[in-house]
Amino acid sequence: MANLRFHIILFLLCTSFLTLISCHCLPENHVTLFIFGDSIFDSGNNNYINTTAQANYQPYGETYIKYPSGRFSDGLLIPDFIAEYAKAPYVLPYLQPGIHDFTYGVNFASSGAGALVETHRELLHPIDLTTQLRFFEDVEKQLMQKLGDAEAKSLLSKAVYLISIGRNDYVVPFYPNSTVLQTYSKEEYVGMVIGNLTVTIKELYEKGGRKFGFLNVERLGCIPFVKRLDQRSNGSCFEEATALAELHNRELSLALQELERQLKGFKYTNFNFYSFLSERINNPSKYGFNEVKMACCGSGQYRGILSCGGRRGVTDYELCENPNEYVFFDAYHLTGKANKQLAELMWSATDPNVTGPHNLRTLINL
Ligand SMILES: *[C@@H]1O[C@H](CO)[C@@H](O)[C@H](O)[C@H]1NC(C)=O
Ligand SMILES: *[C@@H]1O[C@H](CO)[C@@H](O)[C@H](O)[C@H]1NC(C)=O
Ligand SMILES: *[C@@H]1O[C@H](CO)[C@@H](O)[C@H](O)[C@H]1NC(C)=O
Ligand SMILES: *[C@@H]1O[C@H](CO)[C@@H](O)[C@H](O)[C@H]1NC(C)=O
Ligand SMILES: *[C@@H]1O[C@H](CO)[C@@H](O)[C@H](O)[C@H]1NC(C)=O
């Protein structure tokens, strides 16, 4: 009897040893995050491309990280907080030289990018969503070489794909010389944005992606930068811009429900960025803010000119004393404090009107 037990233990030891040497098995709770989109998520890719959409100078980064990393905020971004909650390392920007380990994922987001390749192409030359997908294919290849096809496929299917896209597509039509709304109806234009996003999601699904996290588009007309684009601005939000965001958000919800029906195993969380921002604009003190109309850093009306740091043509700018009192750090981006509040809700809120059908914590463990 003792002998049999000994043999069983020996057998178990051998098989687990063989498993260890035969695959690069990652621990059960290993979290992989692939990040796509715009400046809401860009942790520094634009530092490595020829663009003026960069934030790698002071006062960006002044609050939490103590150096200007390229994040458009005084503090951390939403994916940074999410990585913290998931007990994973901060996700590195894909273009940062010298990254060899992609098993924790990587960040492809690029400030200025939209779902449409034309968005900011001439003005900022960001890495558009399609190019971000090509970069992802390169990472997929490297993971297959490192882990083998089966293990790489397993990693890609357990990974979470976070995507923040659309706001830039919906700001461009309100630039003074834009002809977008003469060329397309609002419905057509939103249809193109959602169409291109859907194509991206389907390609990621084809490569094994199953778990997705989205932000819908915030109440665009209340952002200082966008308020300034209103020719007749009288201090209130620019409702015509908000209307495009609302149309997008309705179409996005429908598109995601449709994808869930079409694609077996497709699961997602869609964070209601729109109501998140609305809530804080309507009741700032409830959330610990006391300035929601004006940005902390910038110049002009509402500090709505994107001149924070003085490196983008306009050298003069104002900087508030305490970014934690503000929702907007610069004319177009949230403070680290607001980002943290958003990430917390996206991670663990149980109200489907806040984030649904799953929250990220549940999604990761599914
Ligand atoms: C960067 O872009 C600017 C403006 O589009 C262009 O004039 C310049 O030549 C580019 N620089 C490099 C190094 O490609
Ligand atoms: C708009 O067009 C005018 C005339 O063609 C040009 O001078 C101006 O620079 C343009 N403005 C922008 C923001 O592109
Ligand atoms: C994607 O966007 C382009 C414009 O950049 C548009 O012509 C095309 O129809 C869109 N694709 C889909 C599937 O909507
Ligand atoms: C200010 O603009 C808003 C939105 O366009 C409008 O509803 C409101 O009547 C305007 N107020 C004044 C005083 O013009
Ligand atoms: C979610 O929003 C809808 C429509 O605004 C509302 O009817 C419903 O009560 C809300 N649900 C929760 C749980 O707050």
From TrEMBL:
Claim: DNA repair is one of the keywords in the record = no
Q: Which SUPFAM superfamilies match?
A: SGNH hydrolase
Q: Which UniProt keywords apply?
A: Coiled coil, Signal
| Claim: Methyltransferase is one of the keywords in the record | no
Which domain of life does the protein's organism represent?
A: Eukaryota
Q: Name one GO molecular function term.
A: lipase activity
Q: Which residues form a coiled coil?
A: 242-269
Q: Which InterPro entries match?
A: GDSL, GLIP1-5/GLL25, SGNH_hydro_sf, SGNH_plant_lipase-like
The positions making up the signal sequence are 1-25
Q: Which family does it belong to?
A: Belongs to the 'GDSL' lipolytic enzyme family.
**What is the designated name of this protein?**
GDSL esterase/lipase 1-like
What gene name is listed for this protein? LOC110423875
